[in-house]
Design brief:
The chain is an alpha/beta fold. 29% of the residues lie in helices and 33% in strands. The protein is elongated and about 130 Å long. It binds zinc ion.
Amino acid sequence: MKLKNIRLFVIFFFLMAILIATQMVAFGASQYTITVSCGPGGKISPAGPTVRVNSGNNQNFTISPNGGYAIADVSVDGSSLGPVTSYRFRNVRANHTISATFTPLAAYAVTASAGVGGTITPSGAITVNAGGSQAFSIVSGSGYQIADVLVDGSSAGAVASYTFSNVTANHSIAASFSAVAPGGQRALVSVTMDDSWLSQYTEALPIMTRYNIKGTFFTVTRYVSDQYEGFMTLEQLRWLKAAGHEIGSHTVTHPDLTTLGSTKLNAELANSKAWLVNNGLGPIYNFACPYGEYNNTTITAIKKYYASQRSGYDEGYNEAASLDPYKIKVQIVLRTTTLAEFSGWLAQAKASKTWLVLEYHQVDNSGDEYSLTPASFEKQAQAIQASGIPAVTVKQALDELASAGN
Ligand SMILES: [Zn+2]
């Protein structure tokens, strides 16, 4: 090898050595790792899980909680810093760790409820974080107006909305409504559903919701409490009530009341009401008698517990001027009821400005005499909507009829 080549070779190796050493300095021993960990409820930025920092550089981190959370603690290399929102590693010359944990903020309940004739949204027990706010809107149903809104028991007037701000305690809001029209000035229709059949919930309810029909569900409490197959559950009844429908009583065991002695008669009336109230479905105002059977003895007993009785077979239309609330007249809807017949009832009620009460049982494809197919029920719901007659609960209709002549 010539001397010149050897010299070039040495120079080449020397340059390579410098290059490798430079690379080691740049990418190897002089870069450090910061390991980032973050509990649920917030975030650290940059998020990691590892962040590489060149030797001697600084690295900032910011810590931010999600809504409803606060920073519980930030720790660096295992030492707690408390709930800081940022941290800067200065002149990094070693590996480090940073971790943050978060905690849910204190929360309070705002309990919202609406009386017959309208809704409040949202409703029920609403959770609000400490310092947060919660708005409610109040809407009256057809034929009703907002009467008053009580906030923590004090009147806020007939307002259509209310907002709790900077919440630091539990609160309540309760809306009440009053009938707009005095009874007898217009027709009303009530969809009443007997016996707590499951199909009333699974088939009829979605249709009623679509056509803005608020109904009254006369419940046989034993069927629900003992979870009879084919009947509604307590939870389903609660959903009905929450959706603005009325729960009424139809006794505990569905007996012919006219065959009972006084003790059993009173037990059927009192215990069904008590069960409904005790399970959050009250207040319970109205009653329907099983098999439509009643006499003076049963009516006297019913008056002790209920504001009204819907009969089973007294066909007709209810007039404000002559109404006997313990003999509410009905039209029974059967499998054989034609749409023409049904529309005729609506037309009759509209012409006479009376209250039409419809009595239903199953809404399914069983073909039972008392069962309607969901398709037939939907056509009837369409007819109700097309008639323009407000479809209200028994309670709403009675309130309006009671105001006749006022
Ligand atoms: Zn029945």
